[in-house]
Amino acid sequence: MFSGAKRRSLERRLSHAKLGRFKPLTEFDWQWPDKIDQKAIHALMQLDFLTGANNLILLGGNGVGKSTLAQNLGYQAVMRGHTVLFTTAPTCSMTWPPWTVTTPCGEESSTTPNRLC
């Protein structure tokens, strides 16, 4: 399937992606939550948003499948040669460096983001 170098590259990228164990989309419960747009998720799995250097943020309550969907997206991206790092919003916001924000009055202050939305 993959030559030695390509296989090692794939294994390295999968390891560094920190995807962990996850349920494949074929086992995803599309009936819960009832507001999830299955067609939109399958369209995202084509990874077209990556060509425009866009970010994707999945928002929703606890236990609705955001991590599972993100892990599936990450896996698809790795399999197509992209470098991925799976993380959660709390972990990501704890590791971001402080931002410098300019107030409307022109004053600068440092702040550390604590939310993605």
Short description:
By secondary structure, the protein is mainly α. The chain has four helices and two strands; from the N terminus they run ααααββ. A two-stranded antiparallel ribbon has the order 1-2.
Task: Describe what this molecule looks like in 3D.
This protein is mainly alpha-helical and 117 residues long. 36% of the residues lie in helices and 7% in strands. The chain has four helices and two strands. The chain has helices at 4-17, 38-44, 66-79, 89-95; strands at 99-102, 108-111. A two-stranded antiparallel sheet has the order 1-2. Strand 1 and strand 2 (108-111) form a beta hairpin. The protein is globular, with a radius of gyration of 17 Å.
Question: How is this fold's topology laid out?
Answer:
Elements: H1 4-17, H2 38-44, H3 66-79, H4 89-95, E1 99-102, E2 108-111
Antiparallel strand pairs: 1-2
